[in-house]
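Case study 2.
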Amino acid sequence: MPELPEVEIAARNLRAWTAGRAIVRAEPDPRARRIFRPATPAAFARAVAGARFGPIRRVGKHLLVALERDGAPLGLLAHLGMTGKLLRRAEADPSTPFSRARLHLDDGAVLHFDDMRLFGRLRVVPGARFEEVPEIAALGPDPLERGVDPDRLAGALARSRLPVKVRIMDQAIVPGVGNIYASEALFRARIDPRRRADALTRPEVRRLAEAIVEAMREGIARQEGPEITYVEEGGENPFLVYAREGERCPRCGKEPITRVVQAQRSTFFCLACQR
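Prediction:
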């Protein structure tokens, strides 16, 4: 599942693939209408055809792609959902297995928005006014761009009786943190994910703020490359505790990693190390 590190790699790849390039034509899958909401697949294709790529920014799990068409700014908001990827192929190559949109570029390459489960999104934003899109306006400060402010995090946690793992997945608090990196950060910070958010001490909050950034930076360093294979697709598991139920804790070496369900998501942690 793509979280901030995977989306950051997608942003870096997209910048390299599209620098100075224009979209000759777009081919959306008409069966994947929900990806292009609120527009239709046909309207999406008409809007981006002939557009030239500009700056590409990532905020949390969102890609903010600036385009220019007929001398006017145009935006493309991309979210990878649960299984989305951006892949680059040659014109003669077959489509990727779950290609939902194909952008044919003026250098002969084709960008595929590949999404097996159809939870991703490609939204045209008139005038590239991303700040007017509600889900973007609601995001907190990006942890990779600005770090995680321990005081701001402490304030957000103090106002909630939710389990801390559930609370830090709120994108208004730490955008980009999802199920995987919430588990990984709490393990690094030695905090039990089941504890109430408002029960954490200031030193614990500070450890957690540092652990979130550390886990994400390491995730980016190990995943950088042209394509990403998610753990759920059968890729190698690089994580300390995520999806390692029953394995010995990598820190204490004694307690097996435990799995519990929180807010319909699997949480992995060590009963001995995390308090």
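The radius of gyration is 20 Å.
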